[in-house]
């Protein structure tokens, strides 16, 4: 495979951009080789700088649930381009998207408490703002997060657990003072007792529980319904807020995300990825009484020069409007096809899936970060290379999930299934 142009671009990039990339995992460090520079996309297909074509199972890490350049999204963007790119004033597009999201969540999440929404420009900002608001509303300081969940790169959430015991956060990145993570309690997933104990010990000072209800940033660690119910109950009894980080799962696991899938109504939700239709958008949303604390109504400050950007709002609305029941049925059928084709082979490797999110792993589906097979990344690196050489683009890390998009057909799925079965038969 000729990737000369990608190699040239990467060499130039490394002279001016740290590591050659603007987000670390793009550098291909965990799979080896040169990152592929993409040039164009159409539907489920990508073309790189050297003209190689790929079937795209990364979909920009999730946002592109309707694939590349969907005509309805392009049309919405173009219409807005004819008016303006940004005002820094309120605009109609943000009202339309806010109304659309809240209305659709109301009809899909049982007892939805998602009554207010504020837009940001990234998922990181959305989660960072949500926990600030949770702290401001409750007057409490501590946030529980789980080992194996990613919530963006804000200081207080870049934390990992020490041992299996409930530990107070130790920063997971240089440049984060330990004081910044001291109010973050890190617990293992899938462990009701650990949550109960944390509340017994710190309950009076816990503002909320933050979780990816579909943890999809450290493999796909699907949680038990009982565990998620427990989080809801514990928050209720201690006056803490349940915050679902649905930056990946929102509008992907059904329109109402994991809240709909598990029929659990969180106090706050964060969104990103799909909500921008391919443009940089995030959002945090939730109860009206909680959001009454947010500036300018209340004392919790939060802002953004380009927040609610009309082009991004138009793109997001157009994409959400494409996400009909039929669209989700189609994605579910494709996902089920991949899962059955691969898992019927009874290999050492399996596919775990929810809706249109899938993940290749060894053995039984792990529910906690420490249950993931540490030797898997080596095999995955070879698999990733094999896929690239055969025109399939997967995320460049064993810990990243794959995404399906609506323009995909059954034959696209059969292609991935065949290639992966052939590879993992000998792995
Ligand atoms: C991607 C992601 C984020 C961060 O969003 P960015 O737009 O990359 O800042 C936060 N939480 C979850 C669950 C994510 O998947």
Please indicate the percent range of residues in DSSP E strands (runs of 2 or more): 15-25%
Strand order of the largest sheet: 4-13-12-11-10-5-9-7
Radius of gyration: 21 Å
Order of helices and strands: HEEEHHEHEEEEHEHEHEHEEHHHEEHEEH
Helix and strand composition category: alpha/beta
Bound molecules: pyridoxal-5'-phosphate
> How would you sum up the major sheet?
8 strands, mixed
Number of domains: 2
Give the helix proportion (percent range). Answer: 25-40%
Q: In terms of per-residue confidence, which ranges show pLDDT below 50 for 5 or more consecutive residues?
A: 161-167
Distance between the termini: 23 Å
Overall strand count:
17
Secondary structure layout plus pairing:
Elements: H1 4-16, E1 38-42, E2 45-48, E3 53-56, H2 71-81, H3 92-108, E4 116-120, H4 123-138, E5 142-147, E6 159-160, E7 167-168, E8 170-171, H5 178-181, E9 184-188, H6 192-202, E10 206-211, H7 225-238, E11 241-245, H8 257-261, E12 268-271, E13 282-286, H9 288-291, H10 310-322, H11 325-343, E14 349-354, E15 357-362, H12 376-389, E16 392-393, E17 402-403, H13 410-425
Parallel strand pairs: 3-16, 5-9, 5-10, 10-11, 11-12
Antiparallel strand pairs: 1-2, 2-3, 4-13, 6-8, 7-9, 12-13, 14-15, 15-17
Helix pairs in contact: 2-10, 3-10, 6-7, 11-13
Pyridoxal-5'-phosphate binds next to helix 4.
């Amino acid at each position: 495979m000729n990737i000369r142009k990608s190699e040239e671009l990467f060499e130039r990039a490394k002279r001016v951009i740290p590591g050659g990339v603007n987000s670390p995992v793009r550098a291909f460090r965990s799979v080896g080789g040169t990152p592929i520079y993409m040039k164009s996309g159409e539907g489920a297909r990508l073309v790189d700088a050297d003209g190689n074509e790929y079937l795209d199972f990364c979909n920009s890490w999730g946002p592109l649930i309707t694939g590349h350049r969907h005509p309805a999204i392009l049309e919405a963007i173009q219409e807005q381009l004819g008016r303006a790119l940004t005002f820094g004033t309120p605009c109609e597009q943000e009202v339309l998207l806010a109304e659309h999201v809240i209305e659709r969540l109301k009809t899909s999440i049982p007892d939805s408490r998602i009554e207010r929404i504020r837009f940001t420009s990234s998922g990181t900002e959305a989660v960072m703002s949500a926990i600030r608001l949770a702290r401001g509303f409750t007057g409490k300081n501590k946030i529980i997060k789980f080992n194996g969940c990613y919530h963006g790169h804000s200081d207080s959430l870049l934390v990992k657990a020490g041992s299996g015991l409930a530990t107070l956060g130790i920063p997971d990145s240089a440049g984060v003072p330990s004081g910044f993570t001291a109010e973050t309690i890190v617990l293992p997933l899938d462990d009701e007792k650990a949550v109960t104990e944390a509340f017994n010990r710190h309950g009076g000072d816990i503002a909320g529980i933050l979780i990816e209800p579909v943890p999809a940033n450290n493999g796909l660690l699907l949680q038990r319904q009982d565990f998620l119910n427990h989080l809801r109950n514990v928050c209720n009894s201690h006056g803490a807020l349940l915050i679902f980080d649905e930056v990946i799962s929102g509008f992907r696991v059904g329109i109402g995300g994991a809240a709909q899938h598990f029929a659990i109504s969180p106090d706050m939700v964060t969104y990103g990825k799909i909500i921008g239709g391919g443009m940089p958008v995030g959002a945090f949303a939730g109860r009206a009484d909680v959001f009454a604390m947010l500036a300018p109504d209340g004392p919790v400050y939060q802002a953004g020069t380009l927040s609610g950007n009309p082009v991004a709002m138009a793109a997001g609305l157009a994409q959400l409007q494409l996400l009909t029941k039929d669209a989700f049925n189609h994605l579910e059928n494709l996902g089920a096809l991949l899962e059955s084709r691969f898992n019927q082979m009874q290999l050492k490797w399996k596919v775990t899936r929810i809706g249109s999110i899938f993940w290749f792993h060894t053995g039984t589906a792990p529910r906690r970060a420490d249950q993931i097979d540490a030797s898997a990344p080596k095999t995955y690196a070879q698999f990733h290379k094999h896929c690239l050489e055969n025109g399939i683009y997967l995320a460049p890390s064993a810990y990243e999930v794959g995404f399906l998009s609506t323009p995909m057909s059954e034959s696209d799925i059969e292609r991935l299934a065949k290639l992966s079965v052939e590879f993992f038969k000998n792995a």
